[in-house]
């Protein structure tokens, strides 16, 4: 059966309108201000989902719908939308697909580092991604972060070099940045025609044609373009680019390599199919270019999504674990198999209530079906399903393999929960999230607001896995913790707007960490006699530094039953409790290995509580002898500034205990790369504006934890003793 017959038969299937072959689940990800939301908005316009183009600066884009997003011109929460695209060009990957609609589920993600959790959970459920880069700045710090996240979850991607109309735009520099900084096997499939204010269109390298957008008004079909012959000045460059592209593909694809060796002609369809194979296997990154703001290059970008990014059946099937065991179970991408999905995002919609966004990996789900949560061991009935289409919430009757949709009204669901058939008791790997790096105390202005604030904070923490709320046991203060100043500022703003709670907050506090520099032994005894039955617990431990980033390991090395088996978990619980609350300065302990080596027990007086206390005492005793040190979060900072302010900004970074990693010239400006302790970055936004008269910009992302230098250690320890509420 031909491609056309297979696809048309699937389209007429009674089960689903859009078959898996015609489905794309993609994310738009990039550094802040690279143009993700603008690109998404243009895609939604060209696919017919919206009929008026919004702009970030005007605060009327579809995916930036929160008040805070529209006021600040940034994306805060990932937004999922569904649109449809019909390839018009005969040069599509399969000529039979011209005129056939594809369903594209798009997730627009934030670029600001404080909201990196939104990118993390989106990447976990995507089949492909469009990485957007600024044509002037190239690869920026958060570009590297989202690239690593895509690599972590094995997400194929294409690259879109945006803002080719901006002063200083340079496609070749952006391409070299990708290869150098991201180690990407990146090769252009389109070249720009002109740059800056002369940017007019693109050269289609595969088909050796030029696509030129006219000036003209934007109609209902967008900005019109024409397919022309390549301008004479670019013909040689386009020919060389095709030869380079074929050579790059032949290095990794056997079919093209064989055709090259046999000197057979390679037509556009064959070459595109090979590029698609390599892209789906994450062995190549096709690179495009354009200007989303000027509406140039968007149509070919959507064509590239269809041509090169995978459908749900083009990637390996998902795997999960049988509950309570390490047995791996395959989750086949098939409507007729058992239902299995992953809840990747919770959101409280002002109109529909609590939404659970989920990705279906296997089977199908209809309204009225029961859904099972292996974590809670409970079933719930599905009363409402919907997809988000622009500003509309569209109710649907069923979802199928490969779909991304939202459930309404389910309770007790967490981000990362597997939702499946009860007979298919499986747990999919949830997304992982970084720990908060900043915290502060918060309290309502009036007692009447206390309950409302508790409810609001609970709801917000359910939605955002990187936002933590807890009560400090020493002071009874409520502490909120997140990924940065902006993150907590947005949380307080949402409390006020959505839950009508006015709250006072303390100054932001750093989430320091503790660790050790050498091995040591420790002993803990808990003995109480108060008439009648007493309490007795005795444990000995050995602590050693663990490999950086490996976390905490607790090992049972008891031989000969010096501590009965039933009391070992109690000792471990005590050790982990001490690790969480800290020993040196009251901050969480990281990267240590703890071995339970010996102990003793009493036939009558020993119990779990006594051994838990013995574990706490033993850990503290060993820790104090193991060269404890305090660690602070260090940020990777990039500052872009006009040359005349370089000296002032370098001096300011040095005063903030920053270490300069490099000074580069890019796009007529100077780019400073530095590693700076987070404790020194408070108020930097104001400082950089003042030092550069508002002309410099910066971005930062978490890098690692480093030892607090002796010059500031005393100050930090004194502050920790005075402000226990700041610890997290």
Which characteristics define this entry?
single chain, Alpha-Beta Plaits, 38 strands, 5 domains, Elongation Factor Tu (Ef-tu), domain 3, alpha+beta, disordered N terminus
Overview of the structural elements:
This protein has 728 residues and is of the alpha+beta class. The protein folds into five domains: 3-308, P-loop containing nucleotide triphosphate hydrolases (Rossmann fold, 3-Layer(aba) Sandwich), CATH 3.40.50; 318-428, Translation factors (Elongation Factor Tu (Ef-tu), domain 3, Beta Barrel), CATH 2.40.30.10; 438-512, 2-Layer Sandwich (Alpha-Beta Plaits), CATH 3.30.70; 518-626, Ribosomal Protein S5, domain 2; 633-707, 2-Layer Sandwich (Alpha-Beta Plaits). The chain is built from 17 helices and 38 strands. A seven-stranded mixed beta sheet has the order 2-3-1-4-5-11-6, with helices on both faces. Residues 1-14, 90-96 and 724-728 have low confidence and may be disordered.
Question: What is the CATH superfamily classification of the largest domain?
Answer: P-loop containing nucleotide triphosphate hydrolases
Number of strands: 38
Tertiary shape: globular
Tally the structural domains: 5
Distance between the termini: 62 Å
Uncertain parts: 1-14, 90-96, 724-728
CATH C-level class of the largest domain? Alpha Beta
Question: What portion of the residues fall into strands of 2 or more residues?
Answer: 25-35%
Radius of gyration: 28 Å
CATH architecture of the largest domain: 3-Layer(aba) Sandwich
> Biggest sheet: strands, sense, closure?
7 strands, mixed
- SSE class: alpha+beta
Task: Could you tell me the CATH topology label of the largest domain.
Answer: Rossmann fold
Q: Count of helices?
A: 17
Please state the average pLDDT score: 84
Helical content, roughly? 25-40%
Strand order of the largest sheet: 2-3-1-4-5-11-6
């Amino acid at each position: 059966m031909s491609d056309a017959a297979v696809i048309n038969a699937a389209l007429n299937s009674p089960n689903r309108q859009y078959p898996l072959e015609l489905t794309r689940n993609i994310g738009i990800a990039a550094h802040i201000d690279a143009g993700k939301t603008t690109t998404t908005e243009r895609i939604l316009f060209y696919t017919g989902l919206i009929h008026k183009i919004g702009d970030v600066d005007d605060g009327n884009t579809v995916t930036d719908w929160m008040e805070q997003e529209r006021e600040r011109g940034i994306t805060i929460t990932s937004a999922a939308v569904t649109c449809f695209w019909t390839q018009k060009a005969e040069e599509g990957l399969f000529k039979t697909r011209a005129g056939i609609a594809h369903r594209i589920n798009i997730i627009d993600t934030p670029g600001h580092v404080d909201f990196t959790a939104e990118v993390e959970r989106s990447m976990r459920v995507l089949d492909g991604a469009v990485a957007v880069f600024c044509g002037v700045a190239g690869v920026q710090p958060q570009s590297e972060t989202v690239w690593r996240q895509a690599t972590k979850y094995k997400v194929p991607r294409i690259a879109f070099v945006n803002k080719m109309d901006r002063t200083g735009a340079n496609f070749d520099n952006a391409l070299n940045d990708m290869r150098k900084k991201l180690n990407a096997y990146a090769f252009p499939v389109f070249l720009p025609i002109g740059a800056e204010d002369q940017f007019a269109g693109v050269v289609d390298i595969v088909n050796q044609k030029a696509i030129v957008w006219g000036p003209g008004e934007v109609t209902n079909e967008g900005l019109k373009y024409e397919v022309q012959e390549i301008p004479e000045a670019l013909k040689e460059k386009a020919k060389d680019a095709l030869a380079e592209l074929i050579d790059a593909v032949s290095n990794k694809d056997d079919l093209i390599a064989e055709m090259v060796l046999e000197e057979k002609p390679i037509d556009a369809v064959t070459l595109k199919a090979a590029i698609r194979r390599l892209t789906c296997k994450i062995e190549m990154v096709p690179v495009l270019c354009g200007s989303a703001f000027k509406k140039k290059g968007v149509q070919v970008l959507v064509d590239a999504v269809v041509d090169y990014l995978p459908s749900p059946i083009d990637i390996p099937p998902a795997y999960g674990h049988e509950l309570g065991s390490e047995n791996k179970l395959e989750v086949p991408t098939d409507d007729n198999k058992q239902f299995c999905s992953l809840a990747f995002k919770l959101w409280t919609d002002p109109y529909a209530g609590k939404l659970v966004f989920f990705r279906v990996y296997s089977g199908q789900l209809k309204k009225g079906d029961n859904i099972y949560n292996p974590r809670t061991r409970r079933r719930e009935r599905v009363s409402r399903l919907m997809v988000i289409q622009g500003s509309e919430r569209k109710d649907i009757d069923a979802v199928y393999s490969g779909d991304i949709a939202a459930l309404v009204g389910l309770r007790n669901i967490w981000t990362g929960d597997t939702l499946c058939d009860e007979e298919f008791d499986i747990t999919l790997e949830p997304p992982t999230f970084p720990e908060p790096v900043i915290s502060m105390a918060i309290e309502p202005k009036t007692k009447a607001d206390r309950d409302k604030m508790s409810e609001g904070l609970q709801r917000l923490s359910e939605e955002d896995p990187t936002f933590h709320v807890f009560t400090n046991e020493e002071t009874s203060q409520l502490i909120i913790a997140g990924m940065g100043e902006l993150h907590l500022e947005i949380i307080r703003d949402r409390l006020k707007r959505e839950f009508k709670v006015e709250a006072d907050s303390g100054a932001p506090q750093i989430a320091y960490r503790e660790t050790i520099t050498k091995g040591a032994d420790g002993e803990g005894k808990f003995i109480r006699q108060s008439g009648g039955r007493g309490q007795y617990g005795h444990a000995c431990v050995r602590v050693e530094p663990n490999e950086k980033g490996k976390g905490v390991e607790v090992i049972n090395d008891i031989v000969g039953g010096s501590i009965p088996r039933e009391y070992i978990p109690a000792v471990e619980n005590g050790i982990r409790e001490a690790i969480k609350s800290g020993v040196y300065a009251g901050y969480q302990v990281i990267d240590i290995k703890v071995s339970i080596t010996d102990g003793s027990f009493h036939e009558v007086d020993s119990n779990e509580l006594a051994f838990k206390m013995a574990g706490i005492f033993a850990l503290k005793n060993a820790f104090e002898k193991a060269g404890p040190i305090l660690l602070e979060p260090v940020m990777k900072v990039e500052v872009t500034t006009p040359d005349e302010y370089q000296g002032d900004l370098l001096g300011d970074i040095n005063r903030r205990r920053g270490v300069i990693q490099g000074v580069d010239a890019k796009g007529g400006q100077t780019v400073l790369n530095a590693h700076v302790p987070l404790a020194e970055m408070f108020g930097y936004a104001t400082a950089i504006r003042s030092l550069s008269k508002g002309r410099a910009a910066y971005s930062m992302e978490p890098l690692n934890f480093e030892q607090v230098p002796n010059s500031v250690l005393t100050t930090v320890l004194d502050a920790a003793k005075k402000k226990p509420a700041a610890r997290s």
